[in-house]
Amino acid sequence: MLSGLVAPFLARRNVHYGWAMVAITFLTMLATAASMGMPGVLLVPLKQEFGWDTGAISGAMALRLVLYGAMGPFAAALMSRYGLKVTICSALAMIVGGLVLSTRMTLLWQFYVFWGVLVGMGTGMTAIVLGATVANRWFTARRGLVLGLLTSAAATGQLVFLPIAAWLAETYGWRVSVLAPISALSVAFVMMLLFGRDHPCEVGLAPYGEAGPPRPPPQQPAEGAVRTALATLGDAAQHRMFWVLFGTFAICGFTTNGLVQTHFIPLCQDFGMAAVAGASVLALMGMFDFFGAIGSGFLSDRFSSSKLLFWYYFLRGLSLLALPFSNFSLVGLSLFAVFYGLDWIATVPPTVKLAASSFGREQAPLVFGWIFTAHQIGAAIAALGAGITHDMLSTYLPAFFTGGVLCLVAAVTALFARPARLPTVAPAPVQV
């Protein structure tokens, strides 16, 4: 294993191998985010080539989003049972297979299988749960910073690859545009295969920030991933902390992926803005999302996670309530984009840290998988509900006001997040 050669090389330079795992994981999540953003580029070309209507194409995209969220807890169970490297390499191969096969499709059901099922399941296995698993296994100190770096990969991936894919689709056709995420996914697969390791003890290390000799991971139960995931849900559901995080993260999904990401552009069009201008505002959000996630990780290492969540949800709620009064001017929307972008995914690091402190390092990824499912449930409700509201009332404003009020509820609820204090470990000598 090349990792056996690289780890001592890094150790001689006082660099923990956990940072190499962070780099590999960041690349993986970056590449899968690119494939998540691709359907927006493909919608019009697929309509033009195959004659499929928008509803039929959107159905496959909705299936992809549902599987993306639903795979979270089962992905965590698979990582615990079969190892992180095996699970992630399998997921990357599944995504690449779906993308490659889609270039040869001729029928609508094939689009549902290739993009809806294969890409949906594969990206769900490499989503935020992967970042939580790596951070919890490899880090005790600076865990929040690591979580911020990894969760920012989702926004960065779409920001970097989506304009490239759109240009390729317009210039050379949609099949060529698929090559961008395929190339990135292939590189991530090779890096994970060659350098990825499941636990720090495999390279003779304790987690970053822990003193003492390497400790083997706890023995995993023999039952299957499905049974493990369901058993974890049953245990976690008995604790108040789980429901606090489940409810607040559902509201997070409601107000981000479901409401703003799906309906912000048509909202701007209702107020006389061009679609390109609305899309530019979303792109600005994505840019600041990167810095917001890293900043939140930094803050979560130094301040109370429950108080951070209070302020994140409180300020997000105020911004949603204030948006309709911005007159949708360039200045007003730019300020909204900067603020909302910084706050977009800032809730992830403190949520993961609260799960880890409440349920332990090994259980935290499984528990967070279920919490992430709540995020996608909230997103689905908002996407559907806001659309129905607009059809009935010819306005999105009630949906955005509802999102603002729900954020204020989440802010108050977050103050009740009081995890049980787990045994602490002695700090290790400072490493880079």
Summarize the structure in short.
The protein is built from 18 helices and no strands. It has 432 residues and is mainly alpha-helical.
Describe this protein's structure.
This protein has 432 residues and is mainly α. The protein has two domains: 202 residues, MFS general substrate transporter like domains (Growth Hormone, Chain: A, Up-down Bundle), CATH 1.20.1250.20; 190 residues, Up-down Bundle (Growth Hormone, Chain: A), CATH 1.20.1250. The chain has 18 helices and no strands. Helix 11 runs antiparallel to helix 16, helix 12 runs antiparallel to helix 13 and helix 13 runs parallel beside helix 16. The two termini are 24 Å apart.
Largest sheet: none
The CATH homologous superfamily name of the largest domain equals MFS general substrate transporter like domains
Please identify the oligomeric state: single chain
Architecture of the largest domain in CATH? Up-down Bundle
Structural Rg: 21 Å
Number of helices: 18
**SSE run:** HHHHHHHHHHHHHHHHHH
Mean pLDDT: 81
Please indicate the percent range of residues in DSSP E strands (runs of 2 or more).
under 5%
Q: What general form does the structure show?
A: globular
- What is the total number of structural domains? 2
Between the first and last Cα atoms, what is the distance in angstroms?
A: 24 Å
The top level CATH class name of the largest domain: Mainly Alpha
The CATH topology annotation of the largest domain reads as Growth Hormone, Chain: A
Question: Could you say which structural class the secondary elements and strand pairing correspond to?
Answer: mainly alpha
